[in-house]
Design goal:
By secondary structure, this protein is of the alpha/beta class. It has 10 helices and 22 strands. The protein folds into 2 domains: about 70 residues, Urease, subunit C, domain 1 (Roll), CATH 2.30.40.10; about 290 residues, Alpha-Beta Barrel (TIM Barrel). Belongs to the metallo-dependent hydrolases superfamily. NagA family.
Length: about 375
């Protein structure tokens, strides 16, 4: 296999931003990050004019792309379309996400992900089931007619799916399930995330103590932080272990709120970026349907007819731009929030989110103005 040296761009390995270094690839594997003087003679050299070489983005909340919604077409062919659309914006590892739907559609989604992985559809790391065991009071764009309590059959289906898939994330509201149910899911390998919830702080803490590890789209569709009732937002920020996804489009969360959250978060649990992307990513469509309801694309927002936000019109490079330009983060920190940090949540990250010797060479080039991300 041909060795390649990529030079002329900064290199982010998932943790550190290296300047003046060279990324050396050998076939589909990272060989080294080294100085230009250490290159062997005769190696093929590709030069860049600035920008950043980095791992492909890791997105744990992808509802659609390329004009396709996973809810509308839970099939391996639809997942291939969604994967291509996200690869075009630099995402090389993602969890297809099924928004609250029927038991039959949930079963079809689990089967579709298994088939797509078996067929070698690139980028699919598992499945994220966002619902249906949520709180009606914080349903957001989820269809209230499809939200329901968790039955024994649901729990058994989730445990079986966790055994069949490399990664399974499930978003649920802690007030709608028991800590014992959460503990059993966590022991089975399910990544339990709390969201679409009006829970109290004690309810959230009980869920986290039982094994929940994450919070879905921090600040959105959840009980807020107030002086005497910290809610799910307060629980997420106070917990040293819980991680939290964040939609950084400056629509779902104000940059000032993002800065406050980053300042408050402590411990190994960290905030990471998600796109919450819908069918619009990689497409020029101006509307689509979700559970039979129209979703409109207007001025960078996706909304139901009544104005309720319904996912995000966002790519990972756009989220990085918001984090660096409006929130004020160093590029290195923003890139980690879109690569290594979400990858750490996964049971089987499969080399996603890092560029280290021996890792798969899922590298991308991010342009200096953050407007383009190209696979290498």
């Amino acid at each position: 296999m041909t060795r390649r040296a990529l030079i002329g761009a900064d290199i982010f390995d998932g943790q550190t931003l290296h300047r003046g270094k060279v990324l050396v690839l050998h076939g589909g594997t990272v060989l080294d990050i080294t100085g230009p003087r250490n290159l062997p003679t005769g190696i093929a050299v590709h030069r860049f004019d600035g920008g950043t070489l980095m791992p492909g983005f890791v997105d744990l909340q992808v509802n659609g792309g390329g004009g396709v919604m996973f809810n509308d077409d839970p099939s391996a062919s639809a997942l291939a379309t969604i994967a291509r659309a996200h690869a075009g914006t630099g995402t090389q590892g993602f969890l297809p996400t099924l928004i609250t739907d029927t038991p039959q559609r949930t079963a079809a989604a689990i089967e579709a992900v298994q088939q797509a992985i078996a067929q070698g559809v690139p980028g699919i790391l598992g499945l994220h089931l966002e619902g249906p065991h949520l709180a009606q009071a914080r349903k957001g764009a989820h269809d209230p007619a499809l939200i329901r309590p968790m039955q024994a059959s649901d729990e058994a289906q989730l445990i079986a799916a966790a055994q069949a898939l490399p990664n399974l994330m499930v978003t649920l509201a802690p007030e709608t399930v028991t800590p014992e149910q959460i503990a059993r899911l966590a022991r089975a390998g399910v990544i339990v995330s709390l969201g679409h919830s009006d829970c109290t702080l004690p309810q959230a803490q009980a869920a986290l103590d039982a094994g929940a590890r994450c919070v879905t789209h921090l600040f959105n569709a959840m009980s807020q932080l107030t002086p005497r009732q910290p809610g799910l937002v307060g629980a997420a920020l106070d917990s040293g272990q819980a991680s939290a996804g964040l939609i950084a489009d400056a629509v779902h969360v104000h940059p000032a709120s993002i800065r406050a959250a980053l300042a408050a978060k402590r411990g190994p649990g960290a905030i990471f970026l998600v796109t919450d992307a819908m069918a619009t990513l990689g497409s020029d469509i101006t509307e689509f349907t979700l559970n039979g309801r129209r979703v409109l694309r207007r001025d960078g927002r996706l909304t139901l007819a009544d104005g309720t936000l319904a996912g995000a019109d966002l790519t990972m490079p756009q989220a990085i731009a918001v984090m660096t330009r409006q929130v004020g983060l160093p590029l290195e920190q923003a890139l980690a929030m879109a690569t290594a940090i979400p990858a750490r949540l996964l049971r089987q990250p499969q080399g996603a989110g890092v560029l280290t010797p021996g890792a798969p060479a899922g590298a991308i080039w991010l342009s200096p103005d953050l407007s383009q991300a190209q696979a290498l």
